[in-house]
Amino acid sequence: MKPIIQVKDLIFEYTRTDAETGEKTVNRAVDNVTFDIAKGSFVAVIGQNGSGKSTLAKCLNGLLLPTSGEVHVSGMRTSDDEHIWDVRSKVGMVFQNPDNQIVSSIIEDDVAFGPENLGIEPAEIRRRVDEALREVGMYDQRKKGPHQLSGGQKQRIAIAGAIAMRPECIVFDEPTAMLDPKGRNMVLYIIKKLNREGITTILITHFMEEAAQAERIIVMQQGRIFSDSTPHELFSDRERIRAAGLELPPAVDLRERVTALGCEIPADIVTADDLIDFITKQPAAAAAE
User: Fold this and answer.
1) Residue 196 pLDDT > 80, yes or no?
2) How far are the Cα atoms of 101, 118, 157, 166, 218 from residue 142, in angstroms, in the given order?
3) Residues near 27 by Cβ (< 8 Å), separated by ≥ 6?
4) Domains (ranges, CATH) in the chain?
5) How do residues 53-74 score in pLDDT, each as one tens digit?
6) pTM for this predicted structure
7) What is the C-alpha to C-alpha distance for residues 198 and 133, in angstroms, rounded to an integer?
8) CA distance 187 to 162
9) In this structure, how many other beta carbons lie within 10 angstroms of the beta carbon of residue 139?
10) Which of 200, 211, 233 is nearest to 39 (CA)?
């Protein structure tokens, strides 16, 4: 199957001009990056602040255009003007701060904003809005104003707005960074649910426990790809994690500590849910023997 996203030799540079001297400074945020994203996959992108991961995210649906190199979405080059709206209808974006995405004073009107801009028929917009709000558990709140919502609820509305555009892929750029643990868990639950339903999912995050739940993890460092592997491969290599300036997910750290005490836990367990599931099954297994 052809990848939904293809990135080849991508370079993106920010150019700043000093207001007083006129001197230009060039910062290469993404430096010669190449990778593909398979349709229906769940990929996490992690890295320290300034590693280029958020800039990379914005390149994937044409919000930023390559300084050089190419990004293709379903065969369409993001830098081609005639394809830009088709690209953005296929690859949705959800950002860190939901307040930066909410444009209406009524929740259901906000979710309808994207489809309206795509020229969708009103009856179809109504169906999409209702379905999207039900998907994120916010249908009963549809007549409220965003100012009445918590941060986690606002992020769910931002996700609903992306869903209503019926994208094949959604890029989540640190969507839980500003949320409390309850809000984070709910948003991550929705992200995984959408992926199970067939939406290609790209999660930019600095939470290792979130990245561990993806099928594949791309680690960015100084604008380049430092590592591209499965969660098990990545989190089994402490030296690689240390070299990337990252930490182990709590579940992996706990697994290693417990294993060091003599209780062997499978090395492919990298998430808290898997660890809990393994531990709770042990008494039953022992009794059966």
Assistant:
1) yes
2) 16, 21, 9, 19, 36
3) 13, 14, 15, 16
4) 5-231 (3.40.50.300), 249-289 (no CATH)
5) 999 999 999 999 999 999 999 9
6) 0.89
7) 18
8) 13
9) 16
10) 200
With cut-offs at 50, 70 and 90, classify the pLDDT of residue 284: low
273: left (phi over 0), alpha (psi -120 to 50) or beta: alpha
Integer Cα distance of 91 and 154 in angstroms: 20
Report in angstroms the alpha-carbon separations of 261 from 43, 98, 115, 258: 33, 44, 56, 5
Band of pLDDT at residue 42, cut at 50, 70 and 90: very high
Q: Choose among 201, 181, 191, 128: nearest CA to 156.
A: 191
Evaluate whether 41 touches 15 at the Cβ level (below 8 Å): no
% of the chain at pLDDT higher than 70: 97
Neighbours of 156 (CB within 10 A): 27
| Per-residue exposure over 26-44, b if at least 16 CB sit within 10 Å of its own CB, e if not | eebbbeebebebeebbbbb
Q: What is the pLDDT of residues 70-86, one digit of tens each?
A: 999 999 999 999 999 89
Detail the DSSP E strand segments found in the chain.
Answer: 5-17, 24-37, 42-46, 68-73, 76-77, 91-94, 169-173, 200-204, 216-221, 224-229
